Amino acid sequence: MPKWVFNTPPNLLTATEKQRIAEGIAAIYTSAGLPAFYCHAHFLEFAADSVYTAGAPSSDVATVAIYHIAGVFDQPEMEQAFLAGFDHVVRPVFKAKGITWESGVYESRRELWRVNGVAPPARLSEMEKRWFREGRVTDEAELLRAQRGE
C-alpha cells in the first residue's frame, strides 16, 4: 500500500491539481506492476491558523508523508529512482505555484498489511497479477481460508 498524505493550508491545491498528482502517483506504482487500487492519495487541509513553519503562519507550504507497506526499497538505486519519480509528480505543480515542500518516506513490514482483511498475495505472483488486471481483490475467500490455516 503506497499512501501519500499531503498536509497543506486551505485551498493550496485545486481539485484539478490534486487529480493530476493522484494520477502521477498511481503511474509510479502501476509501472512497477502494483495494482492501481493499492495507491492512495489523501489531501488534508488545515485551517490557516494551524499551519506554521519556523514558528510563523505559513500559507504556501506542503508536507508529504509517503507510507510504503506493499514493498520497501532494498537498494539505494531504487530509492533514488523513486525520489526522482516523486519529484516528477510534485515539482511541476508545486514550483509553478511557489509552494515549498518537505517529504518523508515511511516503510513498514508487509506482514502487517491487509486489504479487505486479507494478507495480499506475494509480490508479482500470479494472484497479484490478476488483481492488477481486474483492479480489485479477487479470491478473497481462498485467501481468508489460507490465512486462518484452513
TrEMBL record:
Alphabetical list of InterPro entries matching this protein: Cis-CaaD-like (IPR028116), Tautomerase/MIF_sf (IPR014347)
Listed name of the protein: Prostacyclin synthase
Tree of life domain: Eukaryota
Organism: Colletotrichum kahawae
Lineage: Eukaryota, Fungi, Dikarya, Ascomycota, Pezizomycotina
Record domain Tautomerase cis-CaaD-like: where: 1-135
